[in-house]
Amino acid sequence: MTLKGKTALVTGSTSGIGLAIARCLAADGANLVLNGFGDAAAIAAQQAELAKTYGVKVTYSPADISDAAQIATMVAGAGADHGSLDILVNNAGIQFVAPIESFPVAQWNKIIAINLTGAFLAMQAAIPGMKARGWGRIINIASAHGLVASGEKSAYVAAKHGLLGLTKTAGIELANAGVTCNAICPGWVLTPLVQAQLDARAARDGITVEQAAAAFLAEKQPMHKFTAPEQIGATAVFLCSDGAATMTGVALSVDGGWVSQ
After folding, report:
1. Does 54 qualify as catalytic in the annotation?
2. I need a surface site. Which of 44, 156, 158, 215 has the fewest CB within 10 A?
3. pTM higher than 0.85 for the full model?
4. Has domain 7-187+228-252 been given CATH number 3.30.70.1350?
5. Residue 245 — φ and ψ, nearest 5°?
6. Which tens digits make up the pLDDT trace of 190-217?
7. Active-site pick, 60, 156, 188, 258
Protein backbone atom coordinates (compact mmCIF):
# COMPACT_ATOMS: atom_id res chain seq x y z
CA MET A 1 0.00 0.00 0.00
CA THR A 2 2.33 2.68 -1.34
CA LEU A 3 -0.06 5.57 -0.59
CA LYS A 4 -0.53 4.77 3.09
CA GLY A 5 -0.51 8.00 5.07
CA LYS A 6 -1.33 10.14 2.03
CA THR A 7 -4.63 11.96 1.58
CA ALA A 8 -6.43 12.25 -1.75
CA LEU A 9 -9.21 14.65 -2.69
CA VAL A 10 -11.24 13.46 -5.67
CA THR A 11 -13.81 15.89 -7.03
CA GLY A 12 -17.00 14.45 -8.46
CA SER A 13 -16.40 11.20 -6.57
CA THR A 14 -19.86 10.22 -5.35
CA SER A 15 -20.46 8.14 -8.48
CA GLY A 16 -18.97 6.89 -11.74
CA ILE A 17 -15.33 7.39 -12.64
CA GLY A 18 -14.62 9.59 -9.61
CA LEU A 19 -15.88 7.00 -7.15
CA ALA A 20 -13.84 4.28 -8.88
CA ILE A 21 -10.71 6.45 -8.66
CA ALA A 22 -11.36 7.10 -4.97
CA ARG A 23 -11.82 3.38 -4.35
CA CYS A 24 -8.57 2.48 -6.12
CA LEU A 25 -6.62 5.13 -4.19
CA ALA A 26 -8.10 3.88 -0.91
CA ALA A 27 -7.17 0.31 -1.84
CA ASP A 28 -3.58 1.54 -2.11
CA GLY A 29 -3.79 3.09 1.36
CA ALA A 30 -4.80 6.71 0.75
CA ASN A 31 -7.21 8.52 3.03
CA LEU A 32 -10.01 10.17 1.09
CA VAL A 33 -11.97 13.36 0.73
CA LEU A 34 -15.04 12.63 -1.36
CA ASN A 35 -16.84 15.42 -3.17
CA GLY A 36 -19.98 15.63 -5.24
CA PHE A 37 -23.74 15.78 -5.21
CA GLY A 38 -26.22 13.05 -4.34
CA ASP A 39 -28.45 11.62 -1.66
CA ALA A 40 -26.94 12.35 1.76
CA ALA A 41 -27.69 8.89 3.14
CA ALA A 42 -26.17 7.19 0.11
CA ILE A 43 -23.01 9.31 0.38
CA ALA A 44 -22.72 8.55 4.10
CA ALA A 45 -23.03 4.84 3.29
CA GLN A 46 -20.25 5.17 0.69
CA GLN A 47 -18.02 6.87 3.25
CA ALA A 48 -18.60 4.14 5.80
CA GLU A 49 -18.10 1.33 3.30
CA LEU A 50 -14.84 2.73 1.94
CA ALA A 51 -13.47 3.36 5.43
CA LYS A 52 -14.37 -0.13 6.62
CA THR A 53 -13.20 -1.97 3.50
CA TYR A 54 -9.82 -0.27 3.19
CA GLY A 55 -9.08 0.89 6.75
CA VAL A 56 -8.68 4.52 5.74
CA LYS A 57 -10.18 7.80 6.93
CA VAL A 58 -12.90 9.11 4.62
CA THR A 59 -14.46 12.56 4.83
CA TYR A 60 -16.88 14.32 2.51
CA SER A 61 -17.22 17.86 1.13
CA PRO A 62 -20.37 19.01 -0.68
CA ALA A 63 -18.47 21.88 -2.32
CA ASP A 64 -19.86 23.17 -5.61
CA ILE A 65 -16.97 23.09 -8.08
CA SER A 66 -18.34 26.16 -9.86
CA ASP A 67 -17.90 28.22 -6.67
CA ALA A 68 -14.41 29.55 -5.89
CA ALA A 69 -15.05 30.13 -2.18
CA GLN A 70 -16.42 26.61 -1.69
CA ILE A 71 -13.40 25.11 -3.46
CA ALA A 72 -11.01 27.01 -1.20
CA THR A 73 -12.94 25.88 1.88
CA MET A 74 -12.90 22.26 0.68
CA VAL A 75 -9.13 22.22 0.13
CA ALA A 76 -8.45 23.93 3.46
CA GLY A 77 -10.79 21.49 5.18
CA ALA A 78 -9.00 18.51 3.65
CA GLY A 79 -5.74 19.69 5.19
CA ALA A 80 -7.37 20.44 8.54
CA ASP A 81 -9.18 17.10 8.75
CA HIS A 82 -6.35 14.88 7.50
CA GLY A 83 -3.18 16.81 8.29
CA SER A 84 -2.23 17.24 4.64
CA LEU A 85 -3.60 17.11 1.11
CA ASP A 86 -1.17 15.10 -1.00
CA ILE A 87 -3.18 14.02 -4.05
CA LEU A 88 -5.68 16.12 -5.97
CA VAL A 89 -7.81 14.48 -8.65
CA ASN A 90 -9.85 16.97 -10.65
CA ASN A 91 -12.60 14.75 -11.99
CA ALA A 92 -15.82 16.79 -11.67
CA GLY A 93 -17.36 17.60 -15.02
CA ILE A 94 -20.61 18.18 -16.88
CA GLN A 95 -21.69 18.01 -20.52
CA PHE A 96 -24.18 19.75 -22.80
CA VAL A 97 -24.63 19.13 -26.52
CA ALA A 98 -25.73 21.70 -29.12
CA PRO A 99 -24.40 23.34 -32.30
CA ILE A 100 -22.23 26.41 -31.73
CA GLU A 101 -24.78 28.81 -33.20
CA SER A 102 -27.44 27.71 -30.73
CA PHE A 103 -25.26 26.76 -27.77
CA PRO A 104 -26.69 28.52 -24.69
CA VAL A 105 -24.21 30.97 -23.21
CA ALA A 106 -25.27 29.95 -19.71
CA GLN A 107 -24.40 26.33 -20.46
CA TRP A 108 -21.04 27.37 -21.96
CA ASN A 109 -20.19 29.34 -18.83
CA LYS A 110 -21.24 26.50 -16.54
CA ILE A 111 -19.18 23.88 -18.38
CA ILE A 112 -16.08 26.09 -18.44
CA ALA A 113 -16.57 26.93 -14.76
CA ILE A 114 -16.81 23.31 -13.60
CA ASN A 115 -14.64 21.46 -16.13
CA LEU A 116 -11.78 23.95 -16.33
CA THR A 117 -11.90 26.86 -13.88
CA GLY A 118 -12.80 24.56 -10.97
CA ALA A 119 -9.71 22.46 -11.64
CA PHE A 120 -7.54 25.59 -11.78
CA LEU A 121 -8.92 26.88 -8.48
CA ALA A 122 -8.46 23.53 -6.73
CA MET A 123 -4.88 23.36 -7.98
CA GLN A 124 -4.22 26.94 -6.90
CA ALA A 125 -5.43 26.10 -3.40
CA ALA A 126 -3.63 22.75 -3.10
CA ILE A 127 -0.23 23.52 -4.63
CA PRO A 128 1.26 25.65 -1.80
CA GLY A 129 0.88 22.83 0.72
CA MET A 130 2.27 20.24 -1.71
CA LYS A 131 5.29 22.42 -2.43
CA ALA A 132 5.89 23.02 1.28
CA ARG A 133 5.93 19.25 1.90
CA GLY A 134 8.00 18.51 -1.20
CA TRP A 135 5.55 15.90 -2.53
CA GLY A 136 2.28 16.04 -4.40
CA ARG A 137 0.34 14.46 -7.21
CA ILE A 138 -2.21 16.32 -9.32
CA ILE A 139 -4.27 14.30 -11.77
CA ASN A 140 -6.68 16.01 -14.12
CA ILE A 141 -9.33 13.81 -15.70
CA ALA A 142 -9.56 15.15 -19.22
CA SER A 143 -10.94 13.16 -22.14
CA ALA A 144 -10.18 11.99 -25.65
CA HIS A 145 -11.98 15.27 -26.35
CA GLY A 146 -9.03 17.06 -24.81
CA LEU A 147 -7.01 15.92 -27.83
CA VAL A 148 -9.58 15.69 -30.64
CA ALA A 149 -13.02 17.16 -31.22
CA SER A 150 -16.56 16.00 -31.92
CA GLY A 151 -19.38 18.11 -33.24
CA GLU A 152 -21.90 19.82 -30.96
CA LYS A 153 -19.60 19.62 -27.91
CA SER A 154 -17.88 23.00 -28.22
CA ALA A 155 -17.77 23.92 -24.53
CA TYR A 156 -16.72 20.44 -23.37
CA VAL A 157 -14.01 20.15 -26.04
CA ALA A 158 -12.74 23.66 -25.30
CA ALA A 159 -12.66 22.97 -21.55
CA LYS A 160 -10.85 19.66 -21.91
CA HIS A 161 -8.31 21.11 -24.35
CA GLY A 162 -7.78 23.91 -21.82
CA LEU A 163 -7.35 21.38 -19.02
CA LEU A 164 -4.50 19.75 -20.92
CA GLY A 165 -2.84 23.14 -21.36
CA LEU A 166 -3.21 23.77 -17.65
CA THR A 167 -1.71 20.35 -16.93
CA LYS A 168 1.34 21.07 -19.07
CA THR A 169 1.86 24.48 -17.48
CA ALA A 170 1.68 23.01 -13.97
CA GLY A 171 4.07 20.25 -14.98
CA ILE A 172 6.62 22.88 -16.00
CA GLU A 173 6.13 25.12 -12.97
CA LEU A 174 6.31 22.25 -10.44
CA ALA A 175 9.00 20.19 -12.14
CA ASN A 176 11.53 20.61 -9.33
CA ALA A 177 9.12 20.91 -6.40
CA GLY A 178 8.44 17.19 -5.93
CA VAL A 179 4.96 17.70 -7.38
CA THR A 180 3.76 16.18 -10.64
CA CYS A 181 0.72 17.10 -12.69
CA ASN A 182 -0.64 14.75 -15.33
CA ALA A 183 -3.90 14.19 -17.17
CA ILE A 184 -5.81 11.02 -18.00
CA CYS A 185 -7.76 11.13 -21.25
CA PRO A 186 -10.43 8.41 -21.23
CA GLY A 187 -12.35 7.27 -24.26
CA TRP A 188 -15.69 5.56 -23.71
CA VAL A 189 -16.00 4.43 -20.11
CA LEU A 190 -18.86 2.15 -19.10
CA THR A 191 -20.53 4.17 -16.36
CA PRO A 192 -24.21 3.96 -15.36
CA LEU A 193 -24.83 7.09 -17.45
CA VAL A 194 -23.36 5.49 -20.58
CA GLN A 195 -25.24 2.26 -19.89
CA ALA A 196 -28.47 4.25 -19.81
CA GLN A 197 -27.59 5.75 -23.21
CA LEU A 198 -26.98 2.26 -24.62
CA ASP A 199 -30.29 1.00 -23.26
CA ALA A 200 -32.10 3.97 -24.79
CA ARG A 201 -30.40 3.51 -28.17
CA ALA A 202 -31.25 -0.19 -28.21
CA ALA A 203 -34.91 0.54 -27.45
CA ARG A 204 -35.07 3.31 -30.04
CA ASP A 205 -33.49 1.26 -32.84
CA GLY A 206 -35.05 -2.10 -31.98
CA ILE A 207 -31.71 -3.83 -31.47
CA THR A 208 -30.00 -5.58 -28.57
CA VAL A 209 -27.98 -3.66 -26.02
CA GLU A 210 -24.90 -5.56 -27.22
CA GLN A 211 -25.53 -4.38 -30.79
CA ALA A 212 -26.07 -0.84 -29.57
CA ALA A 213 -22.78 -0.98 -27.65
CA ALA A 214 -20.88 -2.28 -30.68
CA ALA A 215 -22.21 0.51 -32.89
CA PHE A 216 -21.54 3.13 -30.20
CA LEU A 217 -17.92 2.07 -29.78
CA ALA A 218 -17.23 1.71 -33.49
CA GLU A 219 -18.11 5.36 -34.07
CA LYS A 220 -14.92 6.45 -32.28
CA GLN A 221 -12.68 3.62 -31.08
CA PRO A 222 -10.67 1.07 -33.08
CA MET A 223 -10.89 -1.15 -30.00
CA HIS A 224 -14.54 -2.11 -29.60
CA LYS A 225 -14.32 -2.39 -25.84
CA PHE A 226 -15.33 -0.06 -23.05
CA THR A 227 -12.83 1.05 -20.44
CA ALA A 228 -13.99 0.14 -16.94
CA PRO A 229 -14.02 2.96 -14.36
CA GLU A 230 -11.64 0.86 -12.25
CA GLN A 231 -9.09 0.95 -15.07
CA ILE A 232 -9.07 4.73 -14.90
CA GLY A 233 -8.61 4.34 -11.13
CA ALA A 234 -5.67 2.00 -11.66
CA THR A 235 -4.07 4.55 -13.99
CA ALA A 236 -4.47 7.22 -11.31
CA VAL A 237 -2.78 4.97 -8.75
CA PHE A 238 0.11 4.45 -11.16
CA LEU A 239 0.52 8.21 -11.63
CA CYS A 240 0.85 8.51 -7.84
CA SER A 241 3.50 5.80 -7.66
CA ASP A 242 7.29 6.04 -7.70
CA GLY A 243 7.20 4.53 -11.18
CA ALA A 244 5.66 7.77 -12.45
CA ALA A 245 7.83 10.14 -10.39
CA THR A 246 9.40 11.71 -13.50
CA MET A 247 6.19 11.80 -15.53
CA THR A 248 4.73 15.28 -15.53
CA GLY A 249 2.75 17.42 -17.94
CA VAL A 250 1.62 14.25 -19.71
CA ALA A 251 -1.74 13.54 -21.34
CA LEU A 252 -2.16 9.79 -20.93
CA SER A 253 -4.78 8.29 -23.26
CA VAL A 254 -6.87 5.35 -22.06
CA ASP A 255 -9.18 5.30 -25.04
CA GLY A 256 -9.10 2.10 -27.07
CA GLY A 257 -7.04 3.79 -29.78
CA TRP A 258 -9.47 6.69 -30.31
CA VAL A 259 -6.83 9.41 -30.83
CA SER A 260 -4.39 7.15 -32.70
CA GLN A 261 -6.49 7.42 -35.84
Report:
1. no
2. 44
3. yes
4. no
5. -60, -25
6. 998 899 999 999 999 999 999 999 999 9
7. 156
